[in-house]
Each structure stands twice: as C-alpha cells, then as structure tokens.
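S.,

Sequence below, as promised.
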Amino acid sequence: MTKLSFTTPIKLPFSYFLNQDVIFLAKDLLGKVLFTQIDGKITAGIIVETEAYFGVHDKASHAYGGRRTDRTETLYSQGGISYVYLCYGIHHLFNIVSSVEGEPHAVLIRGIEPLIGKDIMEERRKMSASKGAISAGPGSAAKALGIDRSFNKKDLGGDEIWVEDHGIRYDEEQIAASPRVGVAYAQDHALLPWRFFIKENKYVSKPNKI
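The prediction came back faster than expected:
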C-alpha cells in the first residue's frame, strides 16, 4: 500500500541530487512531487515513472563514451539542474541531472500523477486530469507541467522548478523495474531494468504491465 508520513513537505536539498548512484535515485524519486511555477501559476505532480541513464558507460545515454555537444554539455554539470531536450522535433523531455560535476548521470521523468493545478494541466493538455494520458509518458508529463526548452539548465532548488518530499512512500511490491522504452539502439543496454514505475497507476506510460 501507499504510505503517507504526516510530515511537512520539504524541498529536496541540493545534496540529494549529488548522489552518484543514479539507479537508486531513479527509484527513490518515485513518490516525490515535481513542481513548476510559470507566470505565477503552480502545477505539481507525483512522480510515478522514471528511467535512469548511467552517463558515459550507458549506451542509451546522450553522453555515452564521453560524447560532449552543445546539447549534452548540461549533463556534465553538477547534479541538481534540469536537462530538457526536444525529441523527434515534437516533445520536450525533462531529466534531472545527478551526481558530481563531470559525471553525466540523469533521470528521465516519464510520468506524473496530477496533484496541484489540475485545471491548468487540463488547459495545457486539452483533456481531463482524470485521463491517464494527460501526463503519462515523458512528453505528456512535461507538457502538463508547462516544461519546454526554456527550462534547460534550471536550478532545481529555485522557484521555477523544484522537487519536494511529501512523505509519499510505496512498498517494494508496488514498484516495477523493467527495460527502458525506445532505446533499442542501445543494444544489450536496452535490456537493463532501469525503468521504474508504480504498478496499476494510470499515469504510467505503456508498456505498464510486468
């Protein structure tokens, strides 16, 4: 069952994102709440689906083999900033850069459960917040929260985008680990179980069965 600890919500400290174990972080971020504030409008969602990308050693990572371009340079920053890129020229995908400077680990946020500002999300996505499609999948989650390329390199400790701990915890049996989505090009690394999601949550993208 989902566990709630009745503690005051706290913004995750800078030190949280310096953890060098990106696999742990991808799983630990489940249940944390991702916030954006745009033109004074606050929206937030519970993170229910993530993927870990293990820097230079991960064939699925933009930084595999130490690749450095204008786009990927953000990944080499110290943890605690956002990495946003355009996928297929259509969808903005939001990632949390983690670990120490020069070690380009990141966690892709693939799904959020709407929590705050649902009416704003509905306006952005042109659908009801009761529909899983509003924020299932990384492009949908980013759009629901108003995240675009302007959010690249944002400090996650600021007042535009941040993550809070609201005491939401899931039992181990509620969390699934599976191969990442859409990374067939990564060959053997495409099979690594580095995608984490909450079972039976409708805001998780497909495939959502184990």
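Residues 2 and 165 are 14 Å apart (CA to CA).

Coffee later?
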